[in-house]
Structure formats: structure tokens, C-alpha cells
Amino acid sequence: MRIAIDRRRLVDRLQEQANIGGIDGERGLDRVTLSEADREVRDWFRDRMTDAGLDVRVDEVGNVFGRRPGADPDAGTVLLGSHLDSQPHGGIYDGPLGVLAALEFVETLEDEGITTERPVELVNWTNEEGSRFQPAMMGSGVWAGALSQEAAYEATDRDGVRFVDALERIGYRGDVPAEPGYDYDSYLELHIEQGPRLDDAGDDVGVVTGVVGFQWGEITFEGQANHSGTTPMHHRRDALVGAADVITGVRRIPGTLGERTVGTTGVIEADPGSINIVPGEVTFTVGFRDPDDETVAEAVDRVKGEAAAAAEREGLEWRYEERMSVESVDFADRCVDAVQSAADDRGYASQRLVSGAGHDATRVASVCDAAMVFAVSEDGKSHSPQEFTDWDDCYAAADTLANAALDLAGVADE
Amino acid sequence: MRIAIDRRRLVDRLQEQANIGGIDGERGLDRVTLSEADREVRDWFRDRMTDAGLDVRVDEVGNVFGRRPGADPDAGTVLLGSHLDSQPHGGIYDGPLGVLAALEFVETLEDEGITTERPVELVNWTNEEGSRFQPAMMGSGVWAGALSQEAAYEATDRDGVRFVDALERIGYRGDVPAEPGYDYDSYLELHIEQGPRLDDAGDDVGVVTGVVGFQWGEITFEGQANHSGTTPMHHRRDALVGAADVITGVRRIPGTLGERTVGTTGVIEADPGSINIVPGEVTFTVGFRDPDDETVAEAVDRVKGEAAAAAEREGLEWRYEERMSVESVDFADRCVDAVQSAADDRGYASQRLVSGAGHDATRVASVCDAAMVFAVSEDGKSHSPQEFTDWDDCYAAADTLANAALDLAGVADE
User: Fold this and answer.
1) Cβ–Cβ gap A232/B197 under 8 Å
2) SS3 track for chain A
3) Nearest CA in chain B to A262
4) Testing the interface with B: which of A193, A219, A275 to mutate, by most B Cβ within 10 A?
5) Which residues of B touch A90 (CB under 8 A)?
6) Residue B267 has pLDDT above 70, yes or no
7) pLDDT tens, position by position, B308-349
8) Do B231 and A255 touch (CB under 8 A)?
9) Which residues does chain A have within 8 Å of residue B358's beta carbon, measured at their own beta carbons?
């Protein structure tokens, strides 16, 4: 059975939420986790779930669930959701589109008087973005057991405010344990792609088969700080020259490994940082991602080779310190198939792809089978008010989500 | 006529001054311009000049002069000196060695009862280092007319303190106009090399024939900040990759131009500076020096070529902004010859070289004929407590200075 969601209502809801924590004069959001704007959008979303007849609960890290019973009380639950928090200067789709598409699904079930076999739950995960409190994907991480609740509670923002205190302040420290309290059958998440692949190909929706793994590290070169006027070139041990060599390597390595491999240096600091002094110490980050964990490991090996060669050329000491490493995720075939079938049946041009960014689904996939639907990101822009997905693309992705979810939840016999 | 200075007194004086603003547990100085330590060393130096019978005056930017009359009241003055201020974590030789060698010369004249033909003056220039108030060589710059007194007065330190107020506070805002009030015949300055050439060659003293010219600029690349996980490599416009290409070029360019050419990137800033975001904007400095101004101009042209090529490869916008440009200085033959003859006559192995760093002599050379004597810097280290010149090398340089100065000042007939 296939269902048709209400396009008008979906668009209205997207516009409504975009006014909560909106940025003056821009189509963007400043709705950082546990802010006043986050409280406001949570209240608004809770009311929408209550209006839709859902049984709402809040867990100890502020994840908000809304449950709709199924015909079979013993059947595993189908969970649907994403996040309502934003980057400090983010777009209006990153997160909310997935939450509101899930809401649209259960509202459509209500409208159509459909009872599913399995219970269906909506969820708004706390602090997916990680811009105020680290790490990102905090709510889903604690819920799935990848992060301790204590570590989440003790995380502090730049002003020294603890996560747990900020959570308490906005009234979303719930009393339900932050863990899967039910048996979960599957999880589906709709999210904007945040990359250009769908837009490049002219596709309508993305069928996400997994999430890339990555490793982040930091390389430090130590040379010799020296006067830039009096030190001949052959006497120098310039740490920044070594770093430049490696950054060039980071640009080159992905092209030697795979079509989905990416490598980035995002942060660099040179000491002492004077126009007139040869840099004696430079630290910079290197990060590689690929759907295949062995390719990530190979990229890290190669960048270490580049660092060793640069150190040898320039007479430097060097070290590599791993900062974070996350294995790739392969989504369950049955969930991916449900998304693919829904896209095909509804007539959308689709593309199977691996997510280059982490999502709450990365965490939930360790608890139950999972998959994702990607909506088109125009020009791949995200984490910026320039982020854009037109209403047709929002609708196509939400429609695909709803029909895949219905497939997984099953329709009860009348 | 040749004279012999007092090695014991020179060493004692060097050690005395090293205790004023000394760094605990290190053989270094923290005697930043117009600090309490600077006041103390100025008072101490003024007393030493007074004891030596000199007529002391302080000008409006705090340059302190001590004048010893010559036999010919109409003859131009021979000026000798350097600076007593230091870097915040500097060595004990950079500056003071030149001032105290000059003092040692006039004390030896007193000891020997020598009357020179020309008047002789000592000078301690204000704020040579430029670490607290920019630009460097401030006192000599105002005196020589390269910098306006108003600009010097209005320069502020990191705490917002104005130069003129700091000068007033330590009691060294004098009332003599900061300009050459006498006719100056010549200027000699002894300074440590701050580079490795004398040490490498095993020479005793350096005969400095000029000062390199330089140009400092800033290059900015603008690309596109983007998610490091979702943006394929071929969609990136990575400003830091462009910068890395140019930094490699800065390392390479000097070797294609001249044996004395040097090029340095000392400062780099990458925005937004997140481990997870492709850098959208990077700004970094480039600086080139060479004894030949045309070579500096050629180096700047070539680095612009590297920037244009990098921008083309990576799809970036770029711009070059000149920050400072100083022409090279050729010292007057007769002053250089005086230094060379003194070194030869006293039996020192010498090397003729061009200073890679700017000195007060760079400024004074626009007022009168000038030259410099370089003392050996062990391993070329400077601007650090590791700066080291052994007493033999201090003596050799001071002895050379004294005999060159006597040559220029002339001995009056009895």
C-alpha cells in the first residue's frame, strides 16, 4: 500500500519552524542546542505530536519521542526522526526536514485512519550538531550506548555551562532513561544530502546505503624559529614548509585511492606567528573519509609517509596524533530496499549513495536496522543560510520516507 | 694610530647591563622598550657616560646622546652606538654590545688622554626592536626623518598605551629636537650578526658593506568553505591548498634568484578553522630580502605568479597587499674601508657581508656616511636567550669598532 502525504501541510510546518530562531533578513536558523530557540521549537513540536494523538516522552538527555501504537503489541517499533537543533548560522532544512517529514507521515496515518502493524515512533534527537557541546550526535549517541550519559552531562560550552544544566534550564531533562526502552525493528531518517551528488545528477531523492568512516588526526612539525632576514635558506628548518608539503599531499592522496575518498586540512597554527620569523612549530589537522575503512587507514598511512618525507627534506621532527576515528556503517538491506522501492514506486529518479557526513542514523544503526533518505541540497551547500532544497525536493524525500516507513510498519488488517 | 681597549672593563659592563631586566635562570633579557627595565638601563648608561665626562642630552623621542668635543669645533661629528632595548625574551648581546663597545672606545680615549680631531658622540637609540611599539628602528627613524615624530608618539602597544605616554612615564621624553642637531661626519655601529655566516666561516669579525632591502606582503585566497565529509574533492575550492602551493614556492624562489635571497612565510590564518570544514579563506605573509632591490622585486613578481597559478588550479580569488617595503642600503666606502683596515691591522680574520636584518644604521645612513661591524653569533641564534657571542668575539668586534672610529675621528696633534 502506498500513501500520499499533504504537501501543503509539510511546507507550512517547515516555514513555521523556520520562524523559531530565524535569522533576520536571511533564510537561515540560529537554533543552537539547548538555547531558548531550541526550547521554543521543542515546545512547538511537542504540541504538534500531542495534537496528532501521540504519547510524548522525554528522556534523560532530552531526546523527545512521540509514540503511536500498532495493531500488534509485541511487534518491534519503527522509529523515524532527525534533529531540530541547528548550527549557529545554519540553514532551515538541516535536521527539521527529517523531523517534520516523520510527523507528516503519522499525521497522514491519522488522516487516512490507518492502523499499522508495528508501533511507530517519532524522535527529535538532542544536540546533533555538536557546535555548542561536543561531541556531535550526542542524544542519539547516549541512547545507542556509544557515549556515556555522564560524559554528555559534563560537556561544557565556551562559557563553561554544563550540558546537564543547560538541559535543566530549558525544561527538557526528562525522567525516562536514555536507552532503547522498547524493542526497535528499524529506524529511518530523512536528511538533506549536504553534498552536491543528487543536484549534479539531477536526481529527486537519495537512497543512502551507509555512512563513510573517517579518521581525524593532528600533525606537528618542530623545526627552528629563526630570524627571517639573517638566516640563509640552507640553514632553515621551516616547520611551515613541511606543513605545506603535507597539505599538498592531503589534496593529492584521495585521487590515488578512490572516487569517494576525501581528505582535508581544516585547522593550521604556526608559531611564533611573526612576519619576521621562520616558523619553528606548526600543528595542523588531517582528516580522511571513505566508505571503506581500509581505504581510510591507507590514506592515513600515506599522509604519514608525506610527513616523514617532508620532515626529512626540511630537517624537522614530526608526530601524528589521532584525534577521532569512526568506522563506516553499512545500512541493513531491508531498510535500504524499503527506501528504494518507495522511491521507485512513487516515480522518483533516485541515486544510491553513501553519506559523507555522520548523522543520528550512524548511532541508531547499532541498535536496530536503519537506513536514510537524502533530499537534494542545491549546489551541496549546508551549514549556512545559503542551504536550499526546493519544496518539490522536500516533498519527494518526505513522500519516499512515508512510503518506506509504511512498508516497514505494515498496515494492519481491518 | 691604533688603540687597545680594556677587555676586562668591556666584559664587566656587558655583564652589568645583563642584570638589568635579566631573565631568571637564563642568560637572556626581558628589557622591552620604555619598560621599567629600560628606564633602569638608561639611567645606568647615562651615569656611565657622565662618569666618562660626556655631555649627555635626551631628545624628544628618548634617544640618548653623550658628546665628547674634538679639537676642531667645525668638524663633523663621528657618531657611535646601537640600542639597549631587547625583545621580550631576547639575548644579552643584541644591541647592548654595540652601545657598550662605543662607550669602551671613549673611555679608552679618556684613559689614554687622546683628543680627537672631530667630536665623538655615543647614542642609545629608542625602540630598535619594535616588539612593543611598531615600527622597529623608531628612534633612529624619527631622528633621520624616515618616520614622523607624531606617528611615533601615537603608536600604541597591545594594552593601548601610547608611545609618548610610556616615554613620559619612564622620564625619557627629552626636550632636544629629534633630528641631527650637529653636522655628522659618519656613523659606526657594532652589532651581533644574528646569522651564521661568520660562525660558519670561522671568521673573527664582519665588515658590513650594506643592508639588504626587503618587501613584506600579504596574500589572501578566497575559495568556498564547505563540509569536509560531503564535498567531493573535485567540487572543492580550498583556500589552504592554494596557500600551501605558494608557501612551497616561497621556499623555492630564493634558490632560483641569488645566493643571498631569502623568502619566508611567517604568519598564516585559515578560516573558519574547523577540523571539519574546507578552509574558505586563508591569509598569509610573504617576505623576500636581497642586497639587490631588483632581485626583491623579481621575487615578489614570481610569488604573485605562484599565487595566480594556485588560484587557477583551485578555483580561488586572490590578492596581494604590500605591507612594507624597504630599499637596500650600500654603506659609504670610506666607512667600510675604515672598518676593514681596523680589522686587518688588528689581525682579525674578517668577512665582508651584507646585513640580512635592518639596524639603526639603515636609518642613519641617510643622514651621513655609515658602516657596521658584525660580531660572531654562535650558530646564528638571536632573539632568544640562546643568543651567544664569546668574550673573544665581543672583544674583537669592539676593538675593530674602536680603531675604525679613531681612524674616522682623527687624532689631534699634541
Assistant:
1) yes
2) CCCCCCHHHHHHHHHHHHCCCECCCCCCECCCCCCHHHHHHHHHHHHHHHHCCCEEEEECCCCEEEEECCCCCCCCEEEEEEECCCCCCECCCCCHHHHHHHHHHHHHHHHHCCCECCCEEEEEECCCCCCCCCCCCHHHHHHHCCCCHHHHHHCECCCCCEHHHHHHHCCCCCCECCCCCCCEEEEEEEEECCCCHHHHHCCCEEEEEEECEEEEEEEEEECCCEECCCCCHHHCCCHHHHHHHHHHHHHHHHHHHCCCCEEECCCEEEECCCCCEECCEEEEEEEEEECCHHHHHHHHHHHHHHHHHHHHHHCCEEEEEEEEEECCEECCHHHHHHHHHHHHHCCCCEEEEEECCCCHHHHHCCCCEEEEEEECCHHHCCCCCCCCCCHHHHHHHHHHHHHHHHHHHCECCC
3) B233
4) A275
5) none
6) yes
7) 999 999 999 999 999 989 999 999 999 999 999 999 999 999
8) no
9) 229
Same fold, A7-211+328-409 and A213-326: no
Q: B228: which chain A residues are within 8 Å (Cβ-Cβ)?
A: 262, 264, 266, 287, 289
Q: Over pLDDT 90: what percentage of chain B? A: 95
- Give the CATH class of A213-326: alpha beta
Task: Calculate how close chain B gets to A276, using CA atoms only, in Å.
Answer: 6
Q: Residues of B with CB below 8 A from A94's CB?
A: none
- The series of mean pLDDT values per 10 residues for chain A, 414 residues long, is 96 98 92 98 98 98 98 96 95 98 98 97 97 94 97 96 98 98 98 97 98 97 94 96 98 96 97 92 98 98 98 98 94 98 98 96 98 97 92 98 98 85
Write the DSSP assignment of B96-115 as a string of letters. Answer: HHHHHHHHHHHHHHHHHTPP
Domain edges within chain A: 7-211+328-409, 213-326
Query: pTM higher than 0.95, yes or no?
Result: no
- Per-residue confidence (pLDDT) for residue B383, from 0 to 100: 87
Residue among B219, B213, B216, B215 at smallest CA distance from B304: B219
Q: Residue A383: list chain B partners with CB under 8 A.
A: 227, 277
Look at B248 and A248 and tell me if their CB atoms are within 8 Å.
yes
Interface touch A228/B289, C-beta < 8 Å: yes
What CATH topology corresponds to B7-211+328-409? Aminopeptidase (3.40.630)
For residue B413, the model assigns a pLDDT of 82
Of all residues in chain B, what percent carry a pLDDT higher than 70? Answer: 100
Read off the pLDDT band of B5 (50, 70, 90).
very high
What is the structure's pLDDT at A414? Answer: 64
- Give the nearest partner residue to A233 out of B194, B254, B287, using CB atoms: B254
Name the residue among B197, B238, B251 with its Cβ closest to that of A241.
Answer: B251
Are A230 and B194 inside 8 Å of each other by CB? yes
Nearest to A266 among B266, B268, B277 (CB): B277
What would the mean pLDDT of B270-277 be, rounded to a whole number?
Answer: 92
- Contact A289/B357, CB-based, under 8 Å? no
| CB-nearest partner of B279 from A214, A261, A266 | A266
Closest-CA residue in chain B for A257?
B233
Q: What is the mean pLDDT of chain B?
A: 97
Q: Which residue of B has its CA nearest to A313?
A: B251
Per-residue pLDDT at B414 exceeds 70: no
**What are all long-range contacts of A334-337, with beta carbons under 8 Å and residues at least 24 apart?**
A334/A186, A334/A369, A334/A408, A335/A186, A335/A187, A335/A188, A335/A369, A335/A370, A335/A371, A335/A404, A335/A408, A336/A207, A336/A208, A336/A209, A336/A371
B273 → closest Cβ in A212, A243, A267: A267
Candidates A233, A235, A241; nearest CB to B380: A235
